[in-house]
């Protein structure tokens, strides 16, 4: 059989390789390097041959080389795609990928591939991931926040309330629920237009946020209705809170006249569902409307 070695181009040398190549002995001393180190890495080859390979490594890579790479080479006899950083002849740090193999005479044959493009791609992938995470967060917020008022939407308060109610009722903490409705809101839209109606909704959302605490769940429940869940709040405290709302809401003016709201309050019981507590607050709200609006009523079975 014809030996394949006879097919090797006699003009081929290690200097033809598009990567750095060098040979070290068992003492880590550089025995030979190719022209890549001079042409691409700006090293004077005479300054490399006869010196230990650590001369081209950064401080961090020297530690990695001594503590991990060499022990692995001595045990496995080869390594592939190890990430290191070297310095070129101008002192610039360059990320590289290293492959190495040990022969029977304990000589080590190294190849160095610059990984600048790989690192650039990695950085781009990181940036793309961060962008996707930000977009996912924004989409999640859009799915949970009422766009007009910035409050929680109906779906989100129902979702969050499940955890809050189960947590607090198990510890026997009182929880009050307020259902709020803007008085004569249809007339505002009819007489002043939907732009004015939207302004009123936004202003009311701002007032509710200013009056509430961080742990309170405040939502636009639908149309001109707003729902607030007040943890650690009994009925007496909830009524005080509602009265403060009435005063704050009156600062919102429509054609010079103060805005008014009607409020219904219910106290959550551990045996009832979120929907049942909301229905009780809604019943109290309708009572407030029937009694003339601009007032607060507490749910009662009587």
TrEMBL record:
Source organism, top-level taxon: Bacteria
Organism listed in the record: Oceanisphaera arctica
Keywords: Coiled coil
Coiled-coil features, chain-numbered ranges: 118-145
Keyword check for Coiled coil: yes
SUPFAM superfamilies: Nucleotide cyclase, PYP-like sensor domain (PAS domain)
SMART domains in the cross-refs: GGDEF
Lineage: Bacteria, Pseudomonadati, Pseudomonadota, Gammaproteobacteria, Aeromonadales
Names of required cofactors: Mg(2+)
Pfam families listed in its UniProt record: GGDEF
Domain GGDEF: from-to ranges: 173-301
Catalytic activity: 2 GTP = 3',3'-c-di-GMP + 2 diphosphate
CDD domains: GGDEF (cd01949)
The protein's name in its UniProt record: diguanylate cyclase
Record EC number: 2.7.7.65
């Amino acid at each position: 059989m014809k030996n394949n070695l006879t097919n090797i181009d006699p003009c081929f040398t290690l200097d033809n390789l598009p990567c750095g190549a060098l040979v070290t002995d068992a003492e880590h001393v550089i025995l030979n390097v190719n022209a890549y180190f001079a042409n691409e890495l700006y090293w004077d080859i005479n300054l490399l041959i006869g010196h230990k390979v650590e001369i081209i490594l950064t401080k961090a890579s020297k530690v990695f080389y001594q503590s991990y790479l060499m022990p692995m080479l001595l045990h496995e006899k080869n390594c592939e795609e190890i990430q290191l950083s070297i310095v070129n002849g101008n002192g610039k740090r360059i990320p590289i990928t290293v492959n190495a193999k040990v022969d029977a005479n304990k000589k080590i044959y190294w190849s160095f591939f610059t990984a600048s493009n790989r690192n650039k791609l990695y950085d781009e992938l990181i940036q793309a991931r961060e962008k996707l995470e930000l977009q996912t967060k924004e989409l999640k917020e859009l799915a949970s926040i009422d766009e007009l008022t910035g409050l929680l939407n109906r779906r989100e308060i129902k979702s969050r309330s499940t955890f809050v109610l189960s947590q607090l009722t198990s510890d026997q903490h009182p929880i009050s629920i307020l259902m709020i409705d803007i008085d004569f809101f249809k007339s505002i839209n009819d007489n002043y237009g939907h732009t004015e109606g939207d302004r009123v909704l936004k202003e009311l959302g701002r007032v509710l946020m200013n009056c509430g605490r961080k742990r309170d769940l405040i939502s636009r429940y639908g149309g001109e209705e707003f729902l607030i869940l007040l943890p650690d709040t009994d009925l007496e405290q909830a009524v005080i809170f509602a009265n403060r709302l009435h005063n704050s809401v009156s600062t919102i003016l429509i054609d010079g006249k103060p805005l008014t709201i009607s409020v219904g309050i219910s106290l959550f019981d551990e045996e009832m569902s979120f929907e049942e507590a909301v229905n009780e607050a809604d019943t109290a709200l309708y009572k407030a409307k029937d009694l003339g609006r601009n007032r607060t009523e507490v749910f009662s079975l009587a």
